[in-house]
Amino acid sequence: MTVAGTEKQLLHLVFGGELENLQDVQFRDLKALDIVGIFPNYATALTAWKSKAQQTVDNAHMRYFIVHMHRLLDPQSK
Fold first, then answer.
1. How far is CA 10 from CA 1, 13, 34, 41, 78, in A?
2. Given the DSSP bridges, would you call strands 34-39 and 62-68 parallel, antiparallel or unpaired?
């Protein structure tokens, strides 16, 4: 349900960490994961992702991801 004049929240999680190797998504240290935040839509999540990715561009093993939480919370919705 949405409030009049607001768009539906489509939650997205942005997080990252250092990978074991570049061919797989296995993190070196799960305790060191960087949870950037949860965002109300893809556009704001993408802005946060770009910012963190740019800050860590010198570390080839550091990767950031966007998780579409709204798809996990409501898998029947399209």
1. 12, 10, 21, 5, 11
2. unpaired
Cα separation, 45 vs 14, whole angstroms: 6
Q: Which of 27, 15, 13, 11 is nearest to 61 (CA)?
A: 27
The CA distance from 25 to 32, in Å, is 15
pLDDT in tens, 31-44: 999 999 999 999 99
Specify the pLDDT at position 31: 96
Residue burial 36-66, b: 16+ Cβ < 10 Å; e: rest: beebeeeeebeebbeebeeeeeeeeebbbeb
Q: Which residue has the higher pLDDT, 1 or 59?
A: 59
Q: How many helices (H) and strands (E) does the chain have?
A: 2, 3
Q: What is the mean pLDDT of the chain?
A: 90
